[in-house]
């Protein structure tokens, strides 16, 4: 079995096409299931079959090579193994940024906006649009500690003015990431949390004229 790609990001959600080596076509009443197995991954998904088999890769928590096997199932035949391939989960820039926001969320400053913008090429609008969905998927796939919150302060501790992940999402104009952060613990409170400059994410959106973010933060 051959796959259309050899690598996928850790957060998955990538479409992969599979070409079977068997010359026999898949019967119309049959179903093909894809089984992905890794050190901590065991996932079964039904493949869609139009012109070629295709499936959406799930997220994983470990950068490694996993096996991909295809099985045929129908009412008239026994379960049949169709082929095997491998797929490598890799860490990309979106994964790096998501992990940084989680691990350093308690010690961010307004200076991080410029430094991270340069590191992850967020200075151009096209680059920001390209990474917004990916970093959101990456953060959603992370095993975030239950004590983590968007405010960057432990529960029960008085919140002091500081830059938080929502500030950065607004500064960069990352609407999908901002929406995810609002759904995390402390997300709604972070909307009006001032940073060292006295500006909240809401005020930043107003200042920079981010109408979509402004609507998101005020609804």
Overview of this protein structure:
- This protein is of the alpha+beta class.
- Helices cover 33% and strands 22% of the residues.
- It contains 8 helices and 9 strands.
- The chain has helices spanning 93-103, 111-119, 125-141, 165-172, 175-182, 187-190, 201-208, 211-218, and strands at 2-3, 7-9, 15-19, 31-37, 42-46, 48-49, 53-56, 65-73, 80-90.
- The strands form 2 sheets. The chain has a 5-stranded mixed beta sheet, with no helix packed on it. Strands 1-3-7-6 form a 4-stranded antiparallel beta sheet, with no helix packed on it.
- Strand 8 and strand 9 form a beta hairpin.
- Helix 1 crosses helix 3 (125-141), helix 4 (165-172) runs parallel beside helix 7 and helix 7 packs antiparallel against helix 8 (211-218).
- The chain is elongated, with a radius of gyration of 22 Å.
